[in-house]
Amino acid sequence: MQPDDFAAYHDEDLVRALTLERANYQAPYLASVAAELARRNVDPQAFIDQVEVRYHADAPATCTIAQALAKASEELPLWHLLAFIHYFGDTLVVQRELRSYLVNVYRGEEYAFSFFVAEGQSLQDLLRRFLTLADWDHLAGTTYQLDSWHPLLRTRSPRYMQKIATALADEGLPFTVQTPVLSHDPRGQLTLLVPDNDPAASAVLHKVEDHLSSLRDQATAAFAANDRDRELAIYAELATCGLNNPAIYYNLGSALAEAGRYAEAATAFVEAASLSLTALDVQVPFQSRRGPGGLGGTFGMVGTLISSLKPDEKTPTDDQREVPDYIEDIELQLAQLLKRLPQNLNILHALAASAAIRHDVPRAREHYRQIIEINPADETAKHYLAEQAGE
Questions:
Q1: 114-172, pLDDT tens digit by residue?
Q2: What is the mean pLDDT of each run of 10 residues along the chain (391 residues)?
Q3: How confident is the model over 11-62, as pLDDT tens digits?
Q4: 221 HSE (CA, 13 A, CB side)
Q5: What is the set of domains in the chain, with CATH numbers?
Q6: Which of 135, 219, 297, 365 sits 20 to 30 Å CA-CA off 63?
């Protein structure tokens, strides 16, 4: 591109040369480009003031740079993504981490590298320079190639993932948590990535796991010693970790029921049922405190139920799905609690969803009709009953 040839170039070519590719040219030439743009009455900054922002898995939205920066100033939920695409197509994908932001850099469609930004104002400065096509690479600090990182942990539980992430952050170790939007995990799990060959990160995970194993042993010992208060306290602590093990919530529910805390017991058993029914393809070690074999649990089961209903597919009543014995134990516990709490919609939803997933249509209908009697506007109950009626 020579000054004499400017007439052959579009405005976009000249703006690109003056901004994104300015490092490739000498100052006199850039001055000539600027003069040509001025002659054409083209303001380079106004020309590039059309960018795209994409939140998490949403479609990109076109906006001005000021609007994009305003969006960046809003609170981003933990592990969610906000992608910023400048006029010429490069992208910064920003992810909210536990105590920082992770920035993933894409040159066109190709991943380049990643780095961490400590706080919001630094992120604003970085994005402003990126979107206005000013130099910004010097703000990146230590860079990483996430393609070489490996999974330390996969789990469906945000609470357990946050517990491990906090332990890693306390040790000052680099890590990132990918949601299925990035990892494309077919089971919808969160994935914690750490640099390859990082024994320190593995040691942190093992320390947390050892502590949780010790708590389980202490709970067993408390039960054997008939120390119900101690047992209840330990299972309550384990439940706060968000482990995807239904036995923890089953045992917590049993202890709460013995203490006469029936509504709390129901919440624990609902969680146990949810974890069991939504992960029937996963072998979960289930060691109940005795006998054979919050509220988020209800939504887990409802999601499984709704996804299994197809308009052209009838659910067989004579071919019920086999489930492990411990799921039947959970159902029995919930049925007993329902006698004490007959208006508890969470118990009814758990029993109804369990019956539907097991293809026990008469029982599912019974429970969903009970739900409708209490709450005629319940969408899940109406949906199931309508499907079964062939509407």
A1: 999 988 889 999 999 999 999 999 999 899 999 999 999 999 889 999 999 999 999 99
A2: 74 93 92 93 95 90 96 90 96 95 95 92 95 94 94 92 96 95 86 92 96 95 94 94 89 95 95 81 41 35 43 49 82 95 94 87 94 94 87 52
A3: 999 999 999 999 999 999 999 999 999 999 999 999 999 999 999 878 889 9
A4: 7
A5: 3-47 (no CATH), 51-144 (no CATH), 245-389 (1.25.40)
A6: 135
AA letter at 282: V
